[in-house]
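Long-time lurker, first post. I've been practising inverse folding by hand and with some scripts of my own, and I keep getting stuck on stretches where the structure tokens seem ambiguous. Below is the full token string for one chain I'm working on. Before anyone asks, I'm not after the true native sequence, just a reasonable design that respects the backbone. If someone could post their per-position residues I'd love to compare against what I wrote down in my notebook.
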């Protein structure tokens, strides 16, 4: 990454992107999408060594990564108190003395992501912060509940105050090549979201091939997705660089054909600051600087934030601290 600013900016001018309204299902386009797996894997294998940033420039990129994190708790034992603590961390993800030492103003995460029942506590805890609440929906994580209930769940989450909805697709539509059914499903989910932005989770670890990932990405965007997202974080294989490269290039192709910018969210398995830098470099190389903003790029992660804060403390003090000093909530 070549950007070198001595006073990195995390709060950038607001860019108003027109929402993707979707387009009619183009089966000729869908069938034309292929994926050269060996070439994709070779390219992905080179990514960690292609960019190296150090010192203040690395700190700047890590601060940018924080602004793109969907700070997430999706556990069966979630409580309102846990969510409130997570929201406090979203408001102040880096200790103030570290920000002061770097000459930085306020920094917040991109969003808080929770189950439906935790939307209320999250909305209350984030009031006035400008940080949106995202809710997982549509029978997350498997997406196998009755269809009318999945649609109703979206409406209930929007009514409760969720500004973003992370939906899960029916994997069987992809595995059976029923692209019409997938398209109609996503269109219905998008209509139920209303003004709330919709992130379509493809569960790429369960789609079998990179070609299926590429085609599912295109159909999701045709159906009106605002973001495409790799995983629920509950699959055995979550975000990977080959999958990310495929999805990002589909985003690039969709923008070239339609003029609509679609966001990207890798989720699951991204826990180290060095991994965040690789993903940021990939976005910059493939899509450009505009996609390095929280309205077009998010990490689905929580433990990532702790490691980033630890790296920032090392940048300021020259010493690594124990991980327990950077609790998430």
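-- Answer (accepted) --
I ran through it position by position. Result:
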């Amino acid at each position: 990454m070549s950007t070198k600013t001595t006073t990195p900016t995390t709060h950038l001018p607001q860019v108003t992107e027109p929402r993707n309204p979707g387009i009619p299902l183009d089966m000729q386009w869908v069938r034309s999408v292929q994926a050269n797996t060996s070439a994709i894997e070779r390219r992905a294998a080179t990514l960690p060594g292609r960019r190296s940033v150090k010192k203040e420039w690395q700190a700047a990129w890590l601060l940018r990564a924080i602004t793109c994190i969907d700070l997430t708790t999706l556990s069966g034992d979630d409580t309102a108190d846990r969510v409130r603590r997570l929201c406090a961390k979203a408001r102040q993800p880096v200790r103030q003395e570290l920000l002061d030492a770097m000459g930085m103003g306020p920094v917040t995460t991109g969003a808080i992501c929770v189950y439906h029942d935790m939307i209320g506590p999250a909305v209350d805890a984030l009031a006035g912060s400008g940080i949106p609440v995202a809710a997982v929906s549509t029978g997350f994580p498997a997406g196998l509940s009755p269809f009318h209930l999945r649609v109703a769940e979206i409406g209930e989450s929007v009514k409760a105050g969720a500004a973003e909805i992370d939906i899960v697709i029916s994997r069987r539509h992809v595995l059976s090549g029923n692209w019409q059914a997938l398209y109609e499903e996503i269109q219905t989910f998008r209509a139920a979201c209303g003004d709330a932005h919709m992130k379509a989770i493809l569960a790429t670890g369960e789609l079998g091939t990179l070609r299926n990932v590429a085609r599912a990405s295109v159909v999701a965007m045709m159906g009106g997705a605002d973001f495409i997202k790799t995983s629920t974080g509950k699959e055995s294989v979550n975000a990977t660089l080959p999958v990310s490269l495929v999805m990002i290039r589909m985003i690039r192709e969709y923008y070239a054909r339609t003029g609509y910018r679609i966001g990207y969210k890798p989720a699951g398995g991204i826990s180290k600051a060095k991994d965040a830098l690789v993903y940021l470099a990939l976005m910059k190389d493939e899509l450009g600087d505009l996609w390095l903003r929280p309205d077009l790029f998010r990490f689905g992660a929580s433990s990532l934030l702790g490691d980033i804060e630890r790296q920032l403390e090392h940048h300021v003090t020259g010493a690594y601290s124990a991980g327990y000093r950077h609790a998430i909530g």
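A couple of notes from the structure itself: The mean pLDDT is 92. Residues 241-258 form the longest helix (18 residues). Happy to go over any region you disagree with.
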